[in-house]
Specification:
Blueprint (H helix, E strand, L loop, with lengths): L11 H19 L11 H8 L3 E7 L3 H16 L4 E7 L2 H13 L10 E4 L1 H9 L22 H4 E2 L2 E2 L5 E7 L1 E5 L10 H10 L12 H15 L11 H18 L14 H9 L5 E4 L5 H6 L7 E4 L6 E8 L7 H11 L2 H8 L17 H8 L10 H4 L4 E2 L6 H13 L3
Parallel strand pairs: 1-2, 1-3, 10-11
Antiparallel strand pairs: 3-10, 4-5, 6-10, 7-8, 7-9
Helix pairs in contact: 1-4, 2-12, 8-9, 9-16
């Protein structure tokens, strides 16, 4: 699966401006609701949700996610009297800005955005500004299947969730290789960088601020810091100044060994996938390895495609569903969030012949019939089981790291050629 990626991420200055606007909207009284309080009884809330349409804003570039919503979620919601309108966006921040626009216009109820597929800096910025409806997840029947002490669930890129969003999917950064060309993939990040140096022109990565390219930079950051001390999850200028020099040194050293000698980079993961599919590079990368079997089945990737992760682990995170406080259809958005957390829909999401995205449910908490169903899911040979993918998983850094690292890459790597 993919996390709600940012196809075009704004630079640090844009993020700062957005945060300032959000906070000023709140201080101007944007956090005061004019709607009646939500029912505190789940049956009453579900009854109030009937007949409502949920405007679900989500990244529109993942065909698997889109099909899952249209073919699995929407019919299940319809049976409960709720309609789902999937609203595709190129960047999750577009949905956050729309909520902000409503609030700046004084629209404290009746907002256009009912539900957002979100995580990372988008969630953090909205939380700082009080955009999200909080304190509701305790009502949800399916929350009992979630491990509420799991830090990968309770922390969203270093930001405490604090009952302001519902977990939906897990993601794990991974590398993709063509086993016909690279029978034995590198086993560690150090071996990967050695392989790149020994095979000039056969590797590249998307240019930050593309989400996948940014994730690769953070993966190298964590690997380059392993010999000294782990990079702290919370951003500070001091931590950046201590960790970043080794990162830029490593990436600058790799640059002339990349595809087209690092003179240009793929604009996004899709462009990198095209290079891999055309045989121009021997590896690709993704935060959604569950999509690989589908790409092989469609003939996009060769049948010899396989997924691998370094032994020391890769970045992992959870993505969520958040309801804006001023949503027009809050009741239906909450009911839909709970429905998307149900064992039935989490199982449908996890099936390899479905979307193939990873469940957030704790199997030990599931009824026996669902434990058996999940246990019976067969992982295609093109990808690794999630337990193997997530072994030694490295928690994501705070979203505050993203913009400085993206800007640093542009200055030190792209501009330092």
């Amino acid at each position: 699966m993919r996390i709600p990626r940012r196809a075009v991420t704004r630079p640090a200055a844009a993020w700062s401006a957005l945060a300032a606007l959000l906070l000023s909207a709140c201080s101007a009284g944007g956090g005061t609701r004019s709607q009646e309080a939500l029912p505190k009884n789940w049956d009453e809330l579900r009854a109030a949700a009937r007949g409502q349409t949920v405007n679900l804003f989500m990244y529109g570039g993942d065909d698997g996610a889109n099909s899952y919503i249209d073919e699995e979620v929407a019919p299940a919601a319809k049976r409960r009297g709720i309609s789902v309108k999937r609203v595709p966006v190129a960047d999750t921040q577009d949905a956050v800005q729309k909520v902000l626009g409503d609030k700046r216009a004084g629209r404290n109820s009746g907002g256009a955005v009912d539900l957002v597929w979100v995580n990372g800096e988008n969630f953090r910025t909205g939380k700082q500004a009080g955009l999200w409806l909080c304190g509701y997840t305790g009502l949800m029947p399916n929350q009992k299947y979630v491990d509420d002490e799991d830090p990968t669930i309770t922390q969203d890129f270093g930001t405490p969730v604090d009952d302001c969003e519902t977990p939906w999917s897990r993601a794990q950064f991974a590398f993709v290789h063509d086993a016909a060309e690279v029978p034995e993939p590198p086993r560690t990040m150090r071996q990967l960088t050695d392989w790149i140096a020994e095979n000039p022109g056969r590797f590249t990565y998307p240019a930050p601020p593309d989400f996948t390219g940014s994730a690769f930079v953070r993966q190298v950051l964590q690997a380059s810091a392993r010999g000294n001390s782990r990079v702290p999850a919370r951003y500070s200028r001091k931590a950046y100044d201590r960790a970043a020099p080794a990162l830029w040194k490593e990436l600058k050293k790799l640059s002339p060994k990349l595809w087209r000698k690092g003179a240009t980079y793929p604009k996004d993961e899709s462009a990198l996938n095209d290079l891999f599919a055309d045989g121009e590079v021997d590896m690709a990368m993704t935060y959604g390895p569950a999509q690989v079997p589908r790409l092989v089945a469609k003939g996009k990737f060769p049948a010899s495609t396989r997924v691998f992760v370094p032994e020391e682990g890769t970045l992992g995170n959870t993505s969520y569903l958040a309801v804006p406080e001023n949503a027009a259809h809050r009741e239906a958005a909450l009911v839909l969030s709970d429905l998307m957390l149900s064992p039935r829909l989490q199982y449908a999401k996890a099936r390899p012949n479905g979307w193939g995205a990873y469940s957030v449910l704790d199997r030990e908490r599931l009824p026996g019939v669902w434990r058996k169903k999940f246990a019976a899911i067969k992982t295609p040979e093109t990808v690794l089981p999630f337990d193997e993918l997530s072994r030694n998983a490295v928690p994501e850094l705070s979203g505050e790291w993203v913009a400085p690292l993206d800007a640093g890459w542009k200055r030190h790597v792209l501009g330092g050629r």
